[in-house]
Amino acid sequence: MSTTHNYSKSNADKANKKVTYSGPETDIQQGADVNFSDQPLPRPKRKRRRSRSERGLPPDQELITLAKTYLELQHKLWPEMVKDGLLPGPTPDLLTEMVDNFKSRHKTGRADATSIQCFKKYCAKLAGLYTRYSCDN
Questions:
Q1: By the 8 A CB rule, do 47 and 137 touch?
Q2: How far is the CA of 77 from the CAs of 2, 60, 72, 87, 120, in angstroms?
Q3: In 3D, which of 63, 47, 61 has the Cα closest to residue 132?
Q4: What is the spatial distance between Cα 56 and Cα 50, in angstroms, rounded to a whole number?
Q5: Which of 3, 55, 89, 92 has the smallest set of CB atoms within 10 Å of its CB?
Q6: From CA 137, how far away is CA 112, in angstroms rounded?
Q7: Within its chain, how far is the Cα of 66 from the centroid?
Q8: 3-class SS at 8?
Q9: pLDDT, greater one: 90 or 130
Q10: Residue 121 per-residue DSSP state
Q11: Residue 126 neighbours by CB under 8 Å, 6+ apart
Q12: What is the DSSP secondary-structure string of 14-76?
């Protein structure tokens, strides 16, 4: 389906940079000032192209917030693990280590299953999942 728009400019309107528009409503109102500059529109700053393995990774600060929230929630849910020393507090060094570990697993697609063996005594079925939709387009 095509729509025909009728634009008309009188000589006086051209001199005053006024546009008369007849057609469906838009941001251009009848008689509105319009800048007919020959300058190109400003482009947004280009982001550096991320490598394929980095795509979908949120910024480190968001991962730190995620790790801190995760540890705080786990402390509430598993007080016996905290008491036994399996769930440490969210210190800056630990949070940085968790972020680095997460990024490594994201980039390689590999996780060390032996690192969770110590939790078997508290729960026989243990799983984890982090999902996120990201689009760099």
A1: no
A2: 60, 25, 9, 11, 16
A3: 63
A4: 9
A5: 3
A6: 32
A7: 13
A8: strand
A9: 90
A10: T
A11: 116, 119, 120
A12: HHTTB-EEESS--S--TT-B----SSPPPPPPPPPPPPTTTTTPPPHHHHHHHHHHHHHHHHH
Task: Name residue 42's amino acid.
Answer: P
Note the pLDDT tens digit of each residue in 48-107.
676 776 777 888 999 999 999 999 999 999 999 999 999 999 999 999 999 999 888 888
Element (H, E) at 4: none
Phi/psi for 120 (5° steps) reads: -60, -35
| Alpha-carbon gap, residue 93 to 96, rounded angstroms | 5
Amino acid letter for position 80: E
Rounded CA-CA distance 79/86 in Å is 10
Q: Where are the domains of the chain?
A: 1-34, 52-106
Distance CA 19, CA 101 (A): 59
DSSP conformation letters of 87-102: S----HHHHHHHHHHH
Reported pTM? 0.54
